[in-house]
């Protein structure tokens, strides 16, 4: 019955005209006229009879509904695209609001699309509730089996939005991928790595493993520069040079402390001094430039002062 | 002035003690002087440079001050951002008993200073009244010409105070830009002060970092810029001259400095980008 109701309106504008046009025999060999006379229907025109007995179709999917649904999808898609561009431009202009605006973008998109789907289903298509239940029930089973992974990702995305292990603008390490979160979607999270590659990580994968967050919503994050040096180096001067190297960088965030950790390590039977210079960068986008600058400054200063030589560095690199 | 070897002649000259070869010798002579003295050292931000070896002079000065504190009452002055940077790097404020932040001038103080200076010129001030001001309800209620001029005077000085952020030197420069015409008796002053500085947000990073360094040091020559940014001398010259030709910086014999009109907007932009903390 459901299939009949759906198909008749779609494929024929007035199906009843076919029957009323001429005398078509049924399978028993009698004519329609003989059947009508037996049923005492000949007093009324056939179309009137059929019009009275036809089932009432109060709802149907028309081409117009499909058209307007598509139009709404396109309009909203374009609107969101330009809204995202505008919000990102505003975020770049005002650094203070950058993270807040970038975090708001995925929430606005997801909320917006949910609203659009609601409007299309309940206002434009507006199926009767029984139809909705029937379609949902039959489709649900098929979709459920076919899209287990997609559903896992969608639920993972919802959990990320509510639980907030990270937000847009944070730098995270997931598995072997480290980078800045640029988009949190229903299905996946996109990060841009230091090599400017965009990596798409399914939300289910993020939900199943640990996520390391470098800055946790802040602009600054800690950067560590590591050096391996000969163990007989002047440690007092080394500490002073290291601290100054961090403090004079154009990228340093001086409201957080600069820390130097030294450790003696053995490589291939040779003792080496491992120095970890930990300082904060004022904007996590300069994370690697900051680390590079600290390394460059320390090494060049040690070489200039004769505290290490090129041969020492070669020896250390061979051992490490 | 950030090189340590230039500190000794500076201090020897300040105490009028010649023929000293080391700072320790100078300390001994000062400590053995019969009468204590007061020493005022201005602009100590010129004693440092943002490099690994650029703090030696400041460290030596602090040590010198500590050793002579029994015989000398020290007063030093420093630019605000230079002081904040030195405080974060070497806790310079802990070497002093008290640090006093000089505040900004209020609108009334500013107008008093500028108008007193102006009176010496002998000209009367006539304030131009633009059409958008004549349409305001407050202005329409004023019928007397004297009241209208007083209204415009308040408006002009309110804008001056806002544009200069309380800096009297910058306010004086802005005041000069307001002079539209001069006749035999009057100076005509326009209330249209300032300009759109939103272009600062679009500056490339290398120029913003250079501006941050200039704000911290107040003045930098090309050689110092090379040391601070660890780059080639030609690259430093190119960046600084590019900024000079666009009016972002000005040049004097000792180096480049941020254009006074742009100082406050540049600070605002650098703070919004977290480059100045």
Descriptive terms for the model:
heterodimer, A: 320 residues, alpha+beta, Alpha-Beta Plaits, five-stranded antiparallel beta sheet, three-stranded antiparallel beta sheet, elongated, disordered N terminus, B: 277 residues, mainly alpha, Barnase, Chain D, Arc Repressor Mutant, subunit A, three-stranded mixed beta sheet, two-stranded parallel ribbon, 13 helices, 7 strands, globular
- How far apart the termini of chain B lie comes to 25 Å
What is the beta-strand fraction of chain A? 15-25%
> How many β-strand stretches of chain A?
8
Main sheet: strands, sense, barrel of chain B: 3 strands, mixed
Topology of helices and strands:
The complex is a heterodimer of chains A (320) and B (277).
Chain A: H1 2-11, H2 16-21, H3 32-38, H4 46-53, H5 63-93, H6 95-125, H7 129-146, H8 148-163, E1 171-174, E2 177-184, E3 188-192, E4 198-202, H9 203-207, E5 211-213, E6 221-229, H10 235-247, E7 259-267, E8 270-281, H11 287-304, H12 310-319
Helix pairs in contact in A: 5-6, 10-11
Chain B: H1 7-14, H2 23-31, E1 37-41, H3 56-67, E2 72-76, H4 80-90, H5 107-119, E3 124-127, H6 131-134, H7 137-140, H8 145-164, H9 168-177, E4 179-182, E5 186-189, H10 205-217, H11 222-229, H12 233-245, E6 249-252, E7 255-258, H13 263-272
Parallel strand pairs in B: 1-2, 3-5
Antiparallel strand pairs in B: 4-5, 6-7
Helix pairs in contact in B: 5-8, 8-9, 10-13, 11-12
Describe this structure in words.
The complex is a heterodimer of chains A (320) and B (277). By secondary structure, chain A is an alpha+beta fold. Chain A has a domain of 99 residues: Alpha-Beta Plaits. Helices cover 54% and strands 17% of the residues of chain A. In chain A, strand 3 and strand 4 form a beta hairpin. In chain A, helix 5 runs antiparallel to helix 6 and helix 10 runs antiparallel to helix 11. The N terminus of chain A is likely disordered. By secondary structure, chain B is mainly α. Chain B folds into 3 domains: 92 residues, Barnase, Chain D (2-Layer Sandwich); 83 residues, no CATH class; 75 residues, Winged helix-like DNA-binding domain superfamily/Winged helix DNA-binding domain (Arc Repressor Mutant, subunit A, Orthogonal Bundle). Helix content of chain B is 49%, strand content 11%. Chain B has a 3-stranded mixed beta sheet with strand order 3-5-4. Chain B has a two-stranded parallel sheet with strand order 1-2. Chain B has a two-stranded antiparallel sheet with strand order 6-7. In chain B, strand 6 and strand 7 form a beta hairpin. In chain B, helix 5 crosses helix 8. The longest helix of chain B has 20 residues. Chain B is globular, with a radius of gyration of 24 Å. The interface between A and B is medium-sized, with 22 and 20 residues.
